[in-house]
Amino acid sequence: MTGETYGPLKALCERAVEQTLPGRTLVIRPGLIVGPFDPTDRFTYWPHRVAQGGEVLAPGRPARPVQFIDVRDLAEWTLDMAEAKRTGVYNADGPAQPLSMEQLLDACKIVSGSAARFTWASEEFLAEQQVEAWSQMPLWVPESDPSNTGFFAFDNRKALAAGLVFRSIEETVRATLEWDATRPADHVWRAGLTREREAELLQAYRALAPRQKEQAL
Question: Helix 45-52 to helix 169-180 angle, to the nearest 10 degrees?
């Protein structure tokens, strides 16, 4: 399985189920699943890093939209749909209203009570510095790449009409931080930047001329 085959294989799985059980299938397509006990760290990195305070390297445009779903919201709604014997295909992604990366980071800052400061680095700079999208910089994919068009623009209206509801972003951040605090201090992070690498990138970004930064963003 690779990045190129992941999506097509999922689509083939859906097709195989429908062919086997025609008219009897419920296909739920969640986005990034986040919250307590997430082993991937693809969301946890941000509440954790912002809570530490200081200068935080943030990716791309502040207004860039992001989507994800709290695992508890997904689980509750999936059970409700199964118990009701609902069928069809649903995009289970949130929140209900558009959310920007800046709003997410601000929520992390408010919930944690930190004094974090955000430095927004352009995606051109991140690419030049070979920062890996989605893994080293979670919740970011380059908008300039046509293959990423619509990556954070899944239409969830059908799922909302079927009863999917989302808890507040602040509640998801708070629960994630509480769970994260229970993990060992030597936990090996599976996503995000090390503090050393982040410091190197911040120094390199500060060295850019102000006009270059403005044009990049």
Answer: 80
- Do 112 and 50 contact (CB within 8 A), yes or no? yes
The domain limits of the chain are 23-216
Q: Which helix (H) or strand (E) holds 27?
A: strand 26-30
Q: Which residues pair with 70 in a beta bridge?
A: 34
Token reading at 61: 């445009």
pTM as predicted: 0.91
Q: What is the pLDDT of residues 168-188, one digit of tens each?
A: 999 999 999 999 999 998 999
Tens-digit pLDDT profile for residues 146-170: 888 888 999 999 999 999 999 999 9
Q: How far apart are CA 184 and CA 19, in angstroms?
A: 46
CATH topology of domain 23-216: Rossmann fold (3.40.50)
In the structure encoding, which two tokens stand for residue 198, read together? 């982040």
